[in-house]
Amino acid sequence: MRCMLIAAVMLLASPASALVVHCPDGRDFIADSPAESECAASCAEWRTAPESDGSRHARCVATPRERAAARSETATGVAGIVLLCLVLAAYLLPSIVASRRRHPNSTAIFALNVLLGWTALGWIIALVWSLTAVPEQRD
Predict the structure, then answer these.
(1) Phi, psi of 135, deg, nearest 5
(2) Distance of alpha carbon 33 from alpha carbon 95, whole angstroms
(3) Which of 79, 34, 41 lies closest to 58 in space, CA to CA?
(4) Could you tell me the pLDDT band of residue 17, with boundaries at 50, 70 and 90?
(5) Where are the chain's structural domains?
């Protein structure tokens, strides 16, 4: 109610193009745009909408800190996916080597890699096995 009263008084004393700017800290201002208000630096994104009484109001929807946190979360998520892909590729390295070398036992190497690769010994055995000599195919 207090906000509506302040807005009504401010609009009566201001030109028709004026905008009631609601700052994140609770202060209200009349300005032609949110960028011209005293709290312009405290908000990264403003949303302007007409009210039922015909007045126009601008409210802060994202502060610079919230915007930075959102960017940070996105970057962390992308880095996590990249890291997961790298770890998966390293884990499956013996299977990848066997497949690329067309090893005759590549299926068995893949099974050993997947089932016992989590142990260091199983992973090393699968890697050594994938690097063993592959008999040449005679046509």
Answers:
(1) -65, 140
(2) 61
(3) 34
(4) low
(5) 2-65, 92-139
Q: Tell me the two tokens of residue 1.
A: 């109610």
Structure-block tokens of residue 81: 């996916």
The 10s digit of each residue's pLDDT in 68-83 is 776 777 778 888 899 9
pTM, full prediction: 0.51
Q: Kindly state the tokens that stand for 48.
A: 């302007």
The secondary structure of the chain as a DSSP string is -HHHHHHHHHHHTS-TT-EEEE-TTS-EEEESSGGGSTTGGG-SEEEEEE-TTS-EEEEEEE-HHHHHHHHHHHHHHHHHHHHHHHHHHHHTHHHHHHHHTT-TTHHHHHHHHHHHTTSHHHHHHHHHHHHS--PPPP-
